[in-house]
Design goal:
The complex is a heterodimer.
Chain A: E1 4-7, E2 10-13, E3 19-25, E4 31-37, E5 43-50, E6 53-57, E7 64-70, E8 73-78, E9 87-94, E10 103-104, E11 108-112
Parallel strand pairs in A: 2-11
Antiparallel strand pairs in A: 1-3, 3-8, 4-5, 4-9, 5-6, 7-8, 9-10, 9-11
Chain B: E1 4-5, E2 10-14, E3 19-21, E4 24-25, E5 33-39, E6 46-52, E7 60-61, E8 64-69, E9 74-79, E10 88-96, E11 99-102, E12 106-111
Parallel strand pairs in B: 2-12
Antiparallel strand pairs in B: 1-4, 3-9, 5-6, 5-10, 7-8, 8-9, 10-11, 10-12
Classes of the chains: A mainly beta, B mainly beta.
Chain lengths: ~110, ~110
């Protein structure tokens, strides 16, 4: 039983295309996140949703649009892909208490040709 | 300003020995939480251990323990009895509101 699952695991596409990454959690958490890990392994928050509402948007280009149809799902749509978008994208979720860790999906490796 | 600093880009340790991975943080908030995650070469992020700023004792989870020195703003991860499977990237992170702010990570290699 995967707690946080994201699909696809690998995504190879060309510049200018539009693509989506899906994320689902079965932990009953209210808060979900998208993180980006660059080629130097640095991890940075992109977005956070709490119960379907956007609460964090970290100066991400508006080509990136998250959508949360319900609190168990948080999808990421990317328009007009650029070379610099190549990275690993992680979805995560957490409960409401401060000491609860964020549980991460296995990541989606996006490669732009 | 960098909030989480991991000064060791890479570390080696002999199998069965203990190793300490350094982490210092910067915050003016009296209430905060510190987390350590492990990222093996397969890429997933695995939660290891948590330390709250008001916790009186250092956190421990099996072979993992935190050397938490609040006055020095450090939260070093200690791995005892290293195993080959401990070879991975280790990230220190601080909870800031609803998000985690990560350090740059330390690559640990366990030698047999």
């Amino acid at each position: 039983d995967t707690a946080v699952s994201q699909t696809p695991k690998y995504l190879v596409t060309q510049m200018g295309n539009d693509k989506s990454i899906k994320c689902e959690q079965n932990l009953g958490h209210d808060t979900m996140y998208w993180y980006k890990q660059d080629s130097k392994k640095f991890l940075k928050i992109m977005f956070s949703y709490n119960n379907k509402e956007l609460i964090i948007n970290e100066t991400v280009p508006n080509r990136f649009s998250p959508k949360s149809p319900d609190k168990a799902h948080l999808n990421l749509h990317i328009n007009s892909l650029e070379l610099g978008d190549s990275a690993v994208y992680f979805c995560a979720s957490s409960g409401g208490q401060y000491n609860q860790p964020q549980h991460f999906g296995d990541g989606t490796r996006l490669s732009i040709l | 300003a960098q909030k989480i600093t991991q000064t060791q880009p890479g570390m080696f340790v002999q199998e069965k020995e203990a190793v300490t991975l350094d982490c210092t943080y910067d915050t003016s908030d009296p209430s905060y939480g510190l987390f350590w995650y492990k990222q093996p070469s397969s890429g997933e992020m695995i939660f290891l251990i948590y330390q709250g700023s008001y916790d009186q004792q250092n956190a421990t989870e099996g072979r993992y323990s935190l050397n938490f020195q609040k006055a020095r703003k450090s939260a070093n991860l200690v791995i005892s009895a290293s195993q080959l499977g401990d070879s991975a990237m280790y990230f220190c992170a601080m909870r800031e509101g609803n998000k985690l702010v990560f350090g740059a990570g330390t690559i640990l290699r366990v030698k047999s």
